[in-house]
Amino acid sequence: MSGSSDSLALPSTTSLPSLEQLHISEVPLPPPTPPNPRKPFPFFRLPPELRTRVFSLLLCPTSHFTIDLSDENYLTSTPRLNYFIVSKRFGYEAYHVFYSSHTFRIFQTHSRFLGKRTLPLLARLPAHYLNVITKLELRLGLGWHDPPKPWVVDDRLRLEHCGNVRTLKIFVEVDPSSPIFNGFRLSWNFYTDFCGDILRQIMERLPLLETVEFDAYSSVDLNGALMTRLLEETTKGKKRIAWGKERHWGDSLVDKLEMGRERARAKANAQDTNGL
């Protein structure tokens, strides 16, 4: 029995350290993990073509985007301008893509910015931004009975700084020479002459302009007085005529034949005027 009782005895604790003898410094700890900071991506080591593509995705999410003085700019344009202040080089390449890709409206159309002393958008931009712009837009129809006071082609627009503009887009909302405006307009040719004079003055200040692109709402007649005058001025200015996607002028054979006749008429009128 003594042997069995000895086997059931508790093990001796004389070899175990007491709590007082234990120290935190003696407790083995895992080796510290070396820090692994996230290195910045070498963006400027990418080829220029890829950097331009990245900027296009950031700054130009939609291809049909016209910038004008508007209360909505803080939602559409302003957030993208934050990329200009990332760094000097980043901002330099960003503004080149932004201003060369978008279309900028020459005269404002928002009612809040039609005051006599309100500067147009182009007058608010620095010269180095203007020099990068490639496309401008002229939207006609607003104020057909009383054109907005800021709609004046003068030195405030600084069109001479827009040295890279190659395309002028013209969108016609209404043609007041239509019979439905009888009794409401000032005269049959008042707005037609106003728009024709503006187009001529703009083209004179854009010597490198190559193409004038026309588009309109469905109510605007291609053979109406307003479109005829605009086509005549474009032909006199020796600019190429193109057509936008809203009205789809030029899609059908009938339209092509009619536009061919309209161009011939405009060319003949221009020759007669030059002959005088």
Q: Secondary-structure map with pairings?
A:
Blueprint: H1 2-7, H2 48-59, E1 66-67, H3 73-76, H4 78-81, H5 88-101, E2 103-105, H6 121-124, H7 127-130, E3 135-140, E4 167-172, H8 190-205, E5 211-216, H9 225-236, E6 240-243, H10 253-275
Parallel strand pairs: 1-2, 2-3, 3-4, 4-5, 5-6
Question: Explain this structure to me?
Answer:
The protein has 276 residues and is α/β, with parallel strands linked by helices. Helix content is 36%, strand content 10%. It has helices at residues 2-7, 48-59, 73-76, 78-81, 88-101, 121-124, 127-130, 190-205, 225-236, 253-275; strands at 66-67, 103-105, 135-140, 167-172, 211-216, 240-243. The chain has a 6-stranded parallel beta sheet. Helix 8 (190-205) links the parallel strand 4 (167-172) and strand 5. The termini are far apart.
Taken in chain order, the helices and strands follow as HHEHHHEHHEEHEHEH
Largest sheet: 6 strands, parallel
Taken as a percent bin, the fraction of beta residues is 5-15%
Question: Percentage of helical residues?
Answer: 25-40%
Structure annotation, total helices: 10
* Total E-strand runs: 6
Determine the N-to-C terminus distance: 142 Å
**Physical arrangement of strands within the biggest beta sheet:** 1-2-3-4-5-6
Give the C-alpha Rg.
35 Å
CA-based shape: elongated
